[in-house]
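Entry 14. Structure prediction run on the chain below.
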Amino acid sequence: MFEQTVSGFWLKGILASAQAKGIDQQQVLTQAGVAILPDAINERVPLDATVNIWNAAIELTQDPLFGFHMGRQFRPNWFHLIHHLWANSPDVLSAINIALEYQALISDGGSLALTQHDGQAIITYQPRAAKLAFSYHQIDAVLTILVSLVRWSIDDQFTPTKISLPHAKPKNDQAFQAFFNCPIEYEASAAQLIFDERWLSHTMIGADPSLFEMHKQLADKKLAELGRGNIRSQIISKLNVLGQFQNISKEEVAQDLNISSRTLQRKLQQEDTSFTELSDQLRKSLAENYIAQGCSTSDLVSLLDFKEISSLHKACKRWFGCSLQEKRSQD
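Output returned:
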């Protein structure tokens, strides 16, 4: 059983939405207790860490409609390959089925299901939390993005029959009413987007079958890699979140990933790397970022989990071929 993770591209959306509200992205990550670099954002991030990032963004922005506003600000690159597959699907039904088939490429934190009943298409979103409970903002974002995607793909006039949200009605729900333009059920038993099933047969604007096939092959490959566990990404994600290097062992990481130490070692060998090498590579990358930010030497020792200042200086010599002071002057 693999750890539940989330695509770094989806994380970009959360951070960009906070940025749009005037909150620095690094401030969100710091409050969430996540040691992750913007340059390393393509890595998968543990689900609980993503929930912490959501919570930090919500608290810092003080926006009671943060999830909804994130959905309104949706950018296709947040979905990466799934966006290309969606855009080049022949019709809406095919696009939705693509989202269902490849949703794990975005996140393990929820599942989408499509049913049809009495002339209505019903998309149900079911959150799948790890240890930390989901915020209703995450649900609002998903349903808002789904509506945005359909409107963008076929017709700006697409109007749902009904939206069901499992949370209480917000004090100011005019924005919801204006965007969805349909009845909204609050405190519902499930999160659902309901619309006339005739929309399912609408042709996607500008769909290209050859591009669809090309991106489908890439998505299948990515999904297979994800299914194999991609041990390198999982270890980097784990160390990113913990921000620890001295006190975290290979055995502890193996336990967190629900595999044996021997299996972890074998998978690392298959990917031609080692636990020590990955830890050192991440530490170097973090060091470059912190030095560029102007962090003090004492802060670097703490952030990079060194026991002594002398160990930091030795590592800088090894990583950059120069002293810490010389590295600072280069940046």
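The CA atoms of residues 61 and 201 lie 40 Å apart.
Filed with the rest of this week's runs.
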